[in-house]
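chain below, 382 aa
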Amino acid sequence: MGFEPAHPKFLGLLSRNGPHFMADRRKSRPMNDAVHPQHLSAVDAAEALHLDDAMAVASAALVAEASAHGQAANDEAEKKAARHAFEMNKLSKKLHRLVGEAITDFNMIEEGDKVMVCMSGGKDSYGMLDILMNLQKRAPIRFEIVAVNLDQKQPGFPEHVLPEYLTKVGVPFRIEEQDTYSVVKKVVPEGKTTCSLCSRLRRGILYRVATELGCTKIALGHHRDDILQTMFMNMFFGSTLKGMPPKLVTDNGEHVVIRPMAYCREQDLAKYAEHREFPIIPCNLCGSQEGLQRQQMREMINEWDRKFPGRVDNMFTALSNIIPSHMMDRKLYPFETIKATGTPMKGGDIAFDEDEGCGEPSDGLPAEASISLNTIPIRKAN
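prediction:
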């Protein structure tokens, strides 16, 4: 019957109705002529029936208890699924809002644009395509989307994954096949990073494809973390204060490159990709190389984010709050020709403040501008 006699809840019940109890009762009855064998069989049968009833009750109780546990587990699973659905819906809205804000802030997509969405098969490009297709349906302007993937002929590259996915979602696409892998391996010495050459080759091919397709914008899947990593790479290894712009004109002057996910965090895009179950294709050409400068920057920024919440947000915001007069680039600010005018200047320096910039944001005027020196009593020297 599926009954487990060792279950502690029913040990007492079994001790009163088990076979040993029946045997004890048999021993307690004297076997004499007054007891007919048929009567003895009837007594045993009654006791056996009583035992069956007790076991049935115990079994039913176990089934009820297991059912209760199962229902509780199902309820908990449903609550967990509901929480997950709520969080993913909130994340989706956040990412769509951030992409929409970036497009608006930098005028990335205009009426009648044909946007070439570059697909690598990674989480970022999948997320970018998915969000742009959603925004396309409700945008106040009309624009086209065409997805483009460059098959670089890496060994083991699953060629069927992207065509199948792009066909499934119903977006026009083109797979450009160019064996840049062999070129990179032939030119770059063993042990050296391949990113620089690979990037140049890929860029040139994508520019050509954009021209052939008549695309007016080229969308890349770089996000906020990529932009910060690039800034620190240029600072640490290139002695240049340069990041990764959300919008730029290509070197040849023929195309406009946009980065719609400039405001998005990488960890949010990773969660979104997992939720959407994108068929991610790993990059075996460059992603597996050890000691890359970008990987060092990623680890440094992630550690700051863990230890000092808000620091990375402030760094990213700083990229939009640049004051050339407080840097040292003579090409951006005429340091050689500035002179005192006697008039407060918006954004002017607060030369003697030790904790400059640590207070609340002001209107940009130096603190001295609101205080007349004539109101400050100054003791004259004897």
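The first helix runs from residue 11 to 17. Strands lie at 114-119, 144-151, 173-177, 217-219, 247-249, 256-258.
thats it, cya
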